[in-house]
Write a structure and sequence with these properties.
113 residues; mainly alpha; 1 helix
Length: 113
């Protein structure tokens, strides 16, 4: 009887240990699946972030190119205005020189008479 009782206790302990090990294995499997899902989500988030950064970089490049084009156009416009002002100044100087020449000639004529 003692042997039977010891065998039952040993069998109970074995069953309890097996159930506990199975539960631990199930929990480990569940934790592994959750970790896998978390890593997949993190990977997707990183991919989305990389795509957003790439798009932002392309937008910045385009904005930079537009700004450069605008600066170039402003520079060209300024050069055109400077040329135009230079020509206007040259014309005004020529007119002044002609007027002075005419005044000098008129003065000479008056002095000669």
């Amino acid at each position: 009887m003692k042997k039977v009782l010891i065998a039952i206790v040993a069998l109970s302990l074995s069953m309890s240990t097996m159930v506990s090990c199975k539960e631990a294995a199930d929990k480990a499997k569940e934790a592994t699946e959750e970790a896998k899902e978390s890593l997949e989500e993190a990977g997707d988030d990183l991919k989305d972030a990389a795509d957003s950064l790439k798009e932002a970089g392309e937008d910045m490049k385009e904005s930079g190119e537009q700004a450069l084009d605008s600066i170039k156009k402003v520079g060209e416009d300024a050069m055109d205005k400077a040329k135009e002002m230079g020509e206007d100044m040259k014309d005004a100087a020529n007119e002044t020189a002609e007027d002075l020449k005419k005044v000098a000639e008129d003065t000479k004529e008056k002095l000669d008479h």
